[in-house]
From TrEMBL:
This is Tripartite tricarboxylate transporter substrate binding protein. Residues 1-24 form the signal peptide. It comes from the Bacteria. InterPro entries: BUG (IPR005064), Bug_dom1 (IPR042100). Keywords: Signal. Belongs to the UPF0065 (bug) family. It comes from Roseococcus pinisoli.
Amino acid sequence: MQITRRAALGTAIAVPTLATPALAQGWQPTRPLRLVVTYPPGGVNDIVGRIIAEPMSRELGHPVVVENRAGAGGNIGTVAVAQAEADGYTILFGTTAMFGVNPILYANSGVDAVRDFTSLGTIGEVANILSVVPDRVRATNIQEFVAEAKSRPLVYGSVGNGSSSHLSATVFLRMAGIEATHVPYRGSSPLVAALLAKEVDFGFDTTATSTAQIRAGAIRPLAVTTTRRASALPDVPTMIEAGLPGFDLGVWFNLAVAKRTPAPIVARLTEALEKSRDALTAQRLGTAFVEPLIVPREQNQSFVAQSAARWQEIARQANLRID
């Protein structure tokens, strides 16, 4: 994925659902807004949601209050936002999973994020890291790891069936021509605990939740799933650098509202998000081991749709099932 960091302020709007700047000035909130994070408090989604809510509050002149609506891999909260009144006061904190995997896992939920939401813009991106347990795996790079995996059975953990962690592993195993037994856990914390307890040989987890343990030497990183190295772990190569051409599975975050939201409201919220993605926000994201990701306004909808389509195809190939 080609990452664009330049600010989108002043860029002409090329998305039909958005209004002109003049119309954008016609709507201003008069009360607090809700930002629905569809995962529990304390995880990377919650952290990034709260980071962006603060400057959004300043830009809009009213509090943007984070509301955690967890369950069903984020689908419960997604459905709730889709069904809420489309008046701009309920915003979805979106993730790759909601747009790219959940429509496959929850085909009968009545909601499809690409179809039913308008993306206001991206916020940041994290890589998943292939990390191994030093006492269980000898390999120190991808080539050694593939050779070791071909010589004996290995077990890997993920943060759950259908997660980006799980799908990153399935793509890696297929491209590397190896097999391993999958043990799904219910979130990053249980997976990291399993790695530390030496219950599995390796796992894929995000930079946001693995970096501290990697820096402490408790787990050994072999490669990241994005096309650029993680700034928090600059010595860890990408999968492409490690010999797997085309491997690009970053996990991004965005804000979105229901598709039926009036265009002037969408434009005003988009403008507020753009102004919120400043240097201080980038610094705070970096502290959480999240890379800032700014897709220009005119490319935003196509970026989301193309990324979602790619993840959906991976999910189909993996023959996913709900836990």
